[in-house]
Amino acid sequence: MIRLGLRLTVNGGREAAVRLILIAAAVALGVGLVLMSLAGVNAVNQQNARYAWLGTGTVPASPTGSASTSTTGNTSAASPLWWLLQADHFAGQTIARVDVAATGLHSPVPPGIPRLPGPGQFYASPALSALLHSTPAGGLGDRFPGHQIGTIGAAALPAPNSLIIIIGHTASQLSHLQLSHVPGATEVRSISATSPSSCNGSNCAVGAGISANGIDLILSVVACALLFPVLIFIGTATRLSAARREQRFAAIRLVGATPRQVSVISAVESTVAAVAGVAAGFGLFFLLRTPLAAVPFTGAPFFPGDLSLSATDVLAVAIGVPLAAAVTARLALRRVQISPLGVTRQVTPRPPRAWRLIPLLAGLAELAYFVAAGRPGTTGGQVQAFVPGFLLIMAGLVIAGPWLTMVAARLMARRARRPASLIAARRLADNPRAGFRAVSGLVIALFVTTVAVGVITTRVASHGAPSGSAAASDTLTAQLGYGQGEAIQIQGRSASAPVSRALLTKLHFIPGVQAVALIHANPLGIKISAAKMGLRSSFGQVPAALISCAQLSRIPLLGRCPAGAQAAAIPSAGFLGLDHSLAATTWPAAAISAQRLQRAGVQAIFVGTNGSTSAIERARTALELAYPYLPSPPTTIGEFSAQNNRTTLEYEQLAEVVILVSLTIAGCTLAVSVAAGLTDRKRPFSLLRLTGAPLGVLRRVVALESAAPLLITALVSTGLGFLAAALFASAQLGYSLRPPGAEYYLIVLAGLAASLGIIASTLPVLDRITGPETARNE
What we know:
By secondary structure, the protein is an alpha+beta fold. It contains 27 helices and 17 strands.
């Protein structure tokens, strides 16, 4: 029977060959997307692991008291290494600066370099090395003492465009920084190998990688959101020409074939197409791996090698897809096994029952339970809590879809006033499974899109979005220190007048610098209400700083003085990196003489520029040279806001990838399903034409049969998506759902319009496939 199945599959004529090619092509696309999804999850974890060494000295101590839970390099070394990790910026990009100093011959060496740099030497990543050679020294190179002696290898680079520099010093230089209370300056005896996905939030390397608080849960949900539509697509593809195959196998049963023989023939036919599709899918994955690696869907691109597949992934896809195709073929022929005569006579299948709603309600109930009981305390517990709930809802939508389609079709039949709507409603009511199957992929895509947009919108509304104003991107700020009196503390030492005339002169002479404003310490004890700053009233009163009104007028982003005032009280430096502009705010006047204001310590320096990269970076370099090793580097307000919202931006990028991929898969599923539906309906439609039904009526029937379940289930899936997003946001994030903006509704409408366009594109074929010759040949 296997040989007969192969012969029927390969030598079954033009129709069999076309069916084989279509199924193989559809499976290849589905398998390629599955492999890309699996490789993407692996790539995020591999990229995250290469951030580990940047957490040296900051990751939690192990129970034995060592500096990290795992190490690289010479772990038996007795000589410690002085270590200081800082962040720097250039043109909106973050530079990881690592200052090191060996205390002996056996000090540990970071990955990616052959040896530690000596005093006056540094290693730079390839991307930073290119920047150093293409940028004037005053804009970047002057910040880093010494000369380059090599490049950092890929083992230490999270991404191909990572900007990292390792600078060598003497031990006395860095030990002095520790005595000066510079944050992060410490002695370490090993290089950390603890990935950010294994460390705890604030103890991870600053601005590097994704902590365990989010990566496992987010990647699990993303994997499910991508894999579920792909599996539906593969299942749909393997059912191409299902009705014709049922009739063919029913005829074989009627001439004496046993159920087992029919099952073997069907399994061989489906498996051959699936195996060919799997092989082509692997080829598609390796063909697209390099361009896919350049997509920064976590905020940074990948190395092509990061998009790798484990042996388990390869075996699961290579064996699982053909096996699933064989099982799907077997299930599709269950009516043939029970009653081959019933298939040949086109007996109406049993209608779906209301029990199909149970998985859907169970998924919603599971999410609702954690809203009432609270989320689990560990990331693993959160994965186990929320992922099954979303899987149940997505599976429940697929299982309940035929029942919902049947109910809607019966209602439509009762209200039908035209022949086309009555025929379409009756056909849908007779076989709602086939009607829903065509739109099942889009239903899942709309659910995934709604959940992703709902959760991201809620998070952005609660955390704030990065400031995108031009003034925020053009204004540079250096936070020097904090203090309530006339003096402030900079790196553990008191400073009464830390800003030199030489620095101010240098800043003013940089082309493109338009203004310099000094934020002074407040010797008057003035405070400002949080409400005036646009913050919640629970913040109460916040510390104030002082500024000259003449300088404030040149930096309008910070607000304005009342008329006639010489100085104003504005929020302390720590409150000025807000995500919203303060330009419309009038601050209270401060009764202080100009001489006393000049003597007060300076908390921060704001530099207004014309927005050019040259002006911003030269001013940043001048500030860094004047105040090295600040707790936070000079940044524009836009950069500061983007850094605070980095996690939100990463989630937004992941959500965009999920939405784009799921909608694309849904469109492919719909196209395959509509094409298969037309093939399966050739005979009944040709008979209708022979009885006198106009072609226009048949076209309206096809449109209604496809559009009715599409619109009905789309409405249900979006509503359930909002409900699931609200439950997840409440249980996991502790926020109430915020409605999305107009972009979401435009995406949904565009998706529905594209789907209706796919349906309409098949209507011209109807005339060709429903002619009288079709009825004669069947």
